[in-house]
Amino acid sequence: MKEKIFLIISNGQVLDESLLEKEFQSVSGRRFRDTFSGLIATDGAVTNLELLGLKADYLIGDFDSISEDDLIKYRENTDTELVHDPDQSKTDTQLAIELALKLGAEKIYILAATGGRLDHSLSNIFDLKMIPDSVEAYIINEHSSITLIRSSSTFSGKMGDTLSLIPIIDVVSLSLEGLMYKLEDKNVQSGKSLVCNKFSENEAKITFKTGEILVIRAHD
Predict the structure, then answer these.
(1) What's residue 128's pLDDT?
(2) Mean pLDDT for each consecutive 10-residue tract of the chain (220 residues)?
(3) Where, residue-wise, is CATH 3.40.50.10240 in the chain?
(4) Alpha helices for the chain (secondary structure H)
């Protein structure tokens, strides 16, 4: 059965389309214009869609961030389903993630979720907590990708690539292998950032008993 892969376009910044696609391809092994199970855009992401040359299968939100002209255009476009949700207690990115999960997503890639206002960027990053362990999910921008792990995981990379870890819940018995700066069976408190580590092998192993860690692959 074909894996259900969803692409979400949010209302953050797209600084360089070619760099973004290069990073996206590095993480996902796919290109923007490959076929996805669904492409979901928040209602404020119309400009980003046009910049990336993409067409949304779903446009979701309370439609307060889209111009009247664009809204009319999308209402006339039968290829895009408009999903109006007036729930002001949720961000449009949260609504997009909920829709992807409802549609059975097994992998979710989120673009244009960072940049601009810090509160929006941080909110979008912490939205990864909404996503169950059974679903692989990444936020990707031009210089980095972010995922959330709740159990031991292995990451592939080239020697010298940067890998940063930011615990958001206290981590018990953390060990790191395949990285320049190793750890063995250490407890690490939430907020203690382990940034700018480097791959010393082509595979890095992160093992721990309990906790939640944001794992960021980054480059300049």
Answers:
(1) 97
(2) 91 92 93 90 90 92 81 81 84 95 97 91 95 97 96 94 96 97 95 93 96 92
(3) 5-142
(4) 17-28, 46-52, 68-76, 92-102, 118-126
Comma-separated ranges of CATH 2.60.120.320 domains in the chain? 153-218
CATH number for the segment(s) 153-218 = 2.60.120.320
Say which residues have a Cβ less than 8 Å from residue 3's Cβ, sequence separation at least 6. 37, 106, 107
Domain 5-142: top CATH class: alpha beta
| Residue at 71: amino acid letter | L
Per-residue pLDDT of 138-168, as tens digits, reads: 999 999 999 999 999 999 999 999 999 999 9
Q: Are 6 and 60 in contact (CB under 8 A)?
A: no
DSSP, res 199: B
Contact between residue 193 and residue 157 where contact means Cβ atoms under 8 Å apart? no
